[in-house]
Amino acid sequence: MSFPHLFSSGEIGECHLKNRIIMALFPTKYATESKINQKMTEFYRTRAKG
User: pLDDT (tens digit, 9 = 90+) per residue, 1-50?
Assistant: First the structure.
């Protein structure tokens, strides 16, 4: 299977992406009152680092 455009840049609306690899939302239930907080930010920061 070949994905020739996987590492090329792209755009979603006004958001510019350096490649086409996107991590889907992970339901953590960390948000309070439907707002992002520090715990949620740290969770996704750690996931992004690998």
Answer: 899 999 999 999 999 999 988 888 788 888 888 888 999 899 989 988 87
Task: Report yes or no: 17 and 11 within 8 Å, Cβ to Cβ.
Answer: yes
Residue 49 falls inside a structural domain: yes
Q: What is the distance between the terminal CA atoms of the chain, rounded to a whole angstrom? A: 25
Domain assignment present for residue 45? The answer is yes
Amino acid identity of residue 41, one-letter, is T
Which residues make beta-bridge pairs with 17?
10
What is the domain count for the chain? 1
Q: Report the SS3 class of residue 48.
A: helix
- The answer to whether residue 48 is domain-embedded is yes
DSSP-based three-state secondary structure for 23 = coil
